[in-house]
């Protein structure tokens, strides 16, 4: 009887119009429109965007100025530098007008900075190279790709400045040539791979489309609960009159919904990969896996809400659709920075947001070398699913009807 119920649950789900529209057609259309509208922005602009940087000097350093001028005069400058006082630089950093502050200072002042790279000078002393007259240090507000590039630029400059100094002392005519070589070497850092995966911000929207498809599984989960309640549907009345136990019917319905929802995830991810050209890196099977567990969580959420006793079916559908869109919005589907804003102010909200958990699992696949955080998110989805299913079972068990 279990497999009989499972078979007809699969057939019923596949024939449902709302399933076809919301779980198959709508994500394809939305993903296509996003690709057309925003897909090339990162490729055209972000990779070549100069990093706004403040420079604070206690005295002018001609060597450093030569390097900065050469960088800013290049075709795709790595840095956009403003020479400011320390007070002005700190205000610009707090107002997010600059990514970081580079301090050009004497050795006596190095203790005041947050990050000091003077170990390069000690290394040069050890091999007999004269010590540099100036030191560089940086101050940053938060961590990120631009901050990492700025930090590595500072390290590279400190390691290479002696070459420029030698050019000034021995052959000033070669200074421009040496500076161009060093500038080219340092600006390559703009394209250096900071992770093993795809860091295109557009891909984050694709993660959220997968999360949205998974969360829309709540509609199929809702039908499972409603279809087993005699006071809400004719199908529920017939099932309550049948000899099949309610537990068997519910489990078969849930498993059937999980499989159908998993199929929707496969269609969504495959379309994004093969048609839209979304780069999920070398871990595509894990993307399918994360999406499948997210689909389980979405179906389970719909099952629990569908089990509420005193709500009509239309009310439950409205609540689920509204809740799903709110969760997807908070995860960054409509506004890419929303999840980051929530993480900065109320991080626990992202931990409890099922849509954000799904999107984060796919993001960690791209940026992490190991699977530690991805597995943690998978475990989180499983825990959510178990809690939702248990809640649904508790609300539907032993329900009796005076007449059918």
Any key phrases for this structure?
five-stranded mixed beta sheet, about 400 residues, elongated, alpha/beta, 18 helices
So what's the overall shape?
Answer: elongated
> Proportion of β residues?
5-15%
Q: Residue share in helices?
A: 55-70%
Assembly type of the shown chains? single chain
Main β-sheet, in a few words? 5 strands, mixed
Overall average residue pLDDT? 76
Structure summary:
This protein is of the alpha/beta class and 404 residues long.
Structure description:
The two termini are 22 Å apart. α9 runs antiparallel to α12 and α17 runs antiparallel to α18. The protein has 404 residues and is of the alpha/beta class. It has a five-stranded mixed sheet with strand order 2-1-3-5-4, with helices on both faces. β1, α4 and β2 form a beta-alpha-beta unit. The radius of gyration is 29 Å and the shape is elongated. About 9% of the residues have low confidence.
Set out the fold topology.
Elements: H1 2-15, H2 17-38, H3 41-44, E1 51-57, H4 62-72, E2 79-83, H5 86-94, E3 100-105, E4 115-116, H6 119-126, E5 135-140, H7 145-170, H8 175-187, H9 201-215, H10 218-226, H11 234-241, H12 246-274, H13 284-306, H14 313-331, H15 338-345, H16 347-352, H17 354-367, H18 372-396
Parallel strand pairs: 1-2, 1-3
Antiparallel strand pairs: 3-5, 4-5
